[in-house]
């Protein structure tokens, strides 16, 4: 029975890790990271490591999401009010006028934008 | 081989699998609700595992999760309040199901472990978890208004 | 079954690296690094696991009554979790600083700024 | 570096890593194998010193010096964050307006602060017996305090959080760990050696020699460190704005 539990938890952890990478908006990624933390905690319980499960929960359920969300909030505010919502995460600082940057080569970017899982 | 572990495995395979899908796709509101429900689900699964492995010490994991999980959801409710406000996620039915399921499992576990400190601890974890889950759902459904900003 | 946990850890590490290399937002990159870091927890604990074993914590079981998993790797993983959390915090502080200085958190734009 | 070159490098590195890692996995001891020579010795050593939680015994007795290194990393990271996130010239501080959190959420938060604090202290105090320890408990304590920001108001948090005090607490926790280590040296054995105190009765709180004390020192350091860390981030996100006007 324990083998089945190990396999289930491993697959869940691998799936949520992949999702955490594929979700590109940091706020939404924070939510996936929280679920990854919870599945890791279950995996550690199944691996008979309650101490590690406790510290993973302590870090993953509140501390990391709080730090990530506070950073995102600060970064967005620093990048100007126009990027507050709408255009997606990938254009963090685009609204800043940067006279020294020169013209952008067309088609060099884009395509990947908004590639949420 | 015992029933508690089988129950935990079924709960994890079905529930947590759906949770990973729910939190990685769809509108923000649904993701946040999923995150909230995952706390209850994982906590119940850990309690089942503790009983299945005959290790009451593992209940401490459930205790910590029943406290920190809802606080984590409140973090999202607080810091994503602007994004959630146009369409506050309400999931009364899901919350009720989660609360009822938690209560049923916790009572079954408390009965199985017999009267004593362990049963009291289990009931405490269950009470904390249900309260936290309900309050966090309330917070997501517009319990925390947008913060006034100095622009 | 005998190597599945190791392979899962390797997969997580590779997925995290892919995310790091293709990230368009530094906060997202820090999250991907956290994924890489969690692969090490899985690997370490998998090495210490023992079929049918239980945790080497004797508050509720008699010593010697059941086989035990390896406590040394668990202690190592504990250290790993702590260090992972501090690394995340420090990197996020750096990201905030970068955003203040350069007004952007897109790695590509940052390298454009430099060159 | 162009995007294509970067992806090519990544693919090469990833393929190389995958091949080598898969080869290494096949040579590792099989998952779930019964032979754990270090683990068995660690369990014997922990039981000889009456420490019920072997993981704590490894962390605070057998590998206590490594834990000192780990806590120094935490200490240094907090220091780095404080330096990085200080208020710079051209930035000003604003008072955040109070928010009206819904009544049940507010009540829940106020009730949960002492409950979570108590749980955190319980986890720290029983670190040498049941799962848990200074780190886990310390984070719970720090989280409990921040429930005031999350569920009540930023001002409520500020009232119970003189950051200076927590900075002192952080340093005091680290110092207590060092002093306990040095006490072993003065007591005639090695640095951080667990030979000073009686080992006590197995499975009671004052068992395990210096393990509970080191545990408490770490608990204090972690709790204070997390509070200081979050205080810096909260300052940046809530209070400090760009002075040049947005």
Automatic annotation (TrEMBL), chain A:
The chain crosses the membrane at residues 29-47, 54-72. Residues 1-19 form the signal peptide. One of its GO terms (cellular component) is plasma membrane. Keywords: Cell membrane, Membrane, Signal, Transmembrane, Transmembrane helix. The keyword Transmembrane applies. It is a multi-pass membrane protein. Residues 78-117 are annotated as: Disordered. It is found in: Cell membrane. It holds the Pfam family MbhD. Residues 87-99 have a biased composition (Basic and acidic residues). Residues 11-77 form the MrpA C-terminal/MbhD domain. The keyword Transmembrane helix applies. Its main location: membrane. Residues 107-117 have a biased composition (Gly residues). This is MrpA C-terminal/MbhD domain-containing protein. It comes from Streptomyces sulfonofaciens.
From TrEMBL, chain B:
It is a multi-pass membrane protein. One of its GO terms (molecular function) is monoatomic ion transmembrane transporter activity. The chain crosses the membrane at residues 32-50, 57-79, 91-112, 119-141. The keyword Cell membrane applies. InterPro entries: MrpF/PhaF-like. The keyword Amino-acid biosynthesis does not apply. GO terms for cellular component: plasma membrane. Keywords: Cell membrane, Membrane, Transmembrane, Transmembrane helix. It is found in: Cell membrane. It comes from the Bacteria. This is Multisubunit sodium/proton antiporter MrpF subunit. It comes from Streptomyces sulfonofaciens.
Automatic annotation (TrEMBL), chain C:
The chain crosses the membrane at residues 6-23, 30-52, 72-96. Its main location: membrane. It comes from Streptomyces sulfonofaciens. The keyword Nuclease does not apply. Keywords: Cell membrane, Membrane, Transmembrane, Transmembrane helix. Pfam families: Oxidored_q2 (PF00420). This is Dehydrogenase. Belongs to the CPA3 antiporters (TC 2.A.63) subunit C family. It comes from the Bacteria. It is a multi-pass membrane protein. It is found in: Cell membrane. GO terms for cellular component: plasma membrane.
UniProtKB/TrEMBL annotation, chain D:
It comes from Streptomyces sulfonofaciens. This is Sodium:proton antiporter. It is a multi-pass membrane protein. Residues 106-227 form the Na+/H+ antiporter MnhB subunit-related protein domain. Its main location: membrane. It comes from the Bacteria. Pfam families: MbhE, MnhB. GO terms for cellular component: plasma membrane. The chain crosses the membrane at residues 72-88, 108-129, 135-154, 175-193, 213-234. Signal peptide: none annotated. It is found in: Cell membrane. Keywords: Cell membrane, Membrane, Transmembrane, Transmembrane helix.
């Amino acid at each position: 029975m324990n083998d089945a539990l190990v396999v289930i938890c491993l697959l869940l952890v691998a799936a949520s890790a992949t999702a955490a990478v594929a979700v590109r908006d940091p706020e939404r990624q924070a939510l996936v990271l929280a679920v990854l933390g919870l599945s890791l905690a279950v995996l550690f319980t199944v691996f008979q490591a309650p101490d590690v499960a406790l510290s993973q929960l302590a870090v993953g359920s509140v501390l990391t999401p709080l730090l990530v969300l506070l950073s995102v909030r600060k970064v967005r505010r620093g990048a100007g009010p126009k990027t507050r919502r709408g255009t997606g995460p990938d254009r963090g600082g685009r609204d800043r006028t940067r006279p020294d940057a020169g013209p952008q080569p067309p088609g060099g970017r884009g395509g990947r934008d908004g590639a949420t899982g | 081989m015992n029933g508690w572990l089988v129950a935990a495995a079924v709960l994890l395979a079905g529930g947590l699998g759906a949770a990973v899908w729910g939190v990685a796709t769809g509108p923000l509101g649904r993701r946040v609700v999923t995150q909230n429900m995952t706390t209850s689900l994982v906590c119940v699964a850990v309690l089942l595992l503790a009983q299945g492995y005959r290790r009451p010490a593992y209940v401490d994991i459930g205790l910590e999760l029943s406290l920190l999980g809802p606080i984590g959801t409140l973090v999202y409710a607080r810091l994503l309040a602007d994004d959630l406000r146009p369409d506050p996620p309400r999931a009364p039915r899901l919350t009720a199901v989660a609360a009822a399921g938690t209560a049923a499992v916790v009572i079954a576990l408390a009965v199985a472990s017999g009267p004593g400190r362990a049963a009291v601890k289990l009931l405490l974890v269950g009470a904390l978890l249900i309260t936290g889950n309900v309050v966090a759902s309330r917070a997501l459904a517009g319990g925390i208004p947008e913060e006034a900003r100095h622009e | 079954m005998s190597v599945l946990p190791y392979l899962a850890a390797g997969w997580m590490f590779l997925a995290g690296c892919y995310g790091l290399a293709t990230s368009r937002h530094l906060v997202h990159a820090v999250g991907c690094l956290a994924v890489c870091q969690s692969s090490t927890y899985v690997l370490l604990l998998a090495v210490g696991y023992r079929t049918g074993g239980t945790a080497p914590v004797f508050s509720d079981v008699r010593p010697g009554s059941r086989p035990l998993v390896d406590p040394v790797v668990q202690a190592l993983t504990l250290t790993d979790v702590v260090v992972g959390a501090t690394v995340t915090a420090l990197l996020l502080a750096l990201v905030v600083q970068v955003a203040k200085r350069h007004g952007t958190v897109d790695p590509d734009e940052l390298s454009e700024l430099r060159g | 570096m162009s995007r294509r070159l970067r992806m090519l490098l990544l693919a090469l590195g990833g393929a190389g890593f995958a091949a080598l890692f898969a080869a290494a996995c096949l040579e590792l001891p099989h998952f779930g194998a019964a032979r754990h020579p270090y683990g068995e010795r660690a369990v014997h050593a922990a039981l000889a010193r009456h420490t019920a939680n072997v993981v704590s015994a490894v962390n605070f007795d057998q590998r206590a010096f490594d834990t000192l290194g780990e806590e120094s990393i935490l200490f240094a990271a907090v220091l780095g964050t404080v330096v990085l996130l200080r208020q710079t010239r051209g930035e000003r501080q604003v008072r955040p307006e109070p928010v009206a959190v819904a009544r049940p959420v507010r009540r829940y938060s106020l009730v949960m602060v002492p409950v979570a604090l108590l749980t955190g202290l319980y986890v720290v105090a029983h670190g040498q017996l049941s799962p848990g320890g200074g780190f886990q408990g310390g984070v719970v304590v720090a989280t409990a305090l921040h429930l005031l920001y999350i569920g009540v108001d930023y001002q409520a948090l500020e009232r119970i959080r003189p950051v200076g005090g927590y900075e002192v607490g952080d340093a005091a926790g680290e110092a207590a760990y060092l002093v306990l280590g040095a006490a072993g040296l003065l007591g005639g054995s090695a640095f951080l050696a667990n030979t000073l105190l009686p080992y006590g009765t197995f499975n009671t709180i004052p068992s395990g020699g210096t393990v509970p004390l080191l545990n408490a020192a770490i608990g204090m350091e972690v709790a204070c460190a997390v509070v200081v860390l979050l205080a810096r981030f909260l300052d940046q996100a809530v209070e400090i704005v760009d002075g040049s006007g947005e």
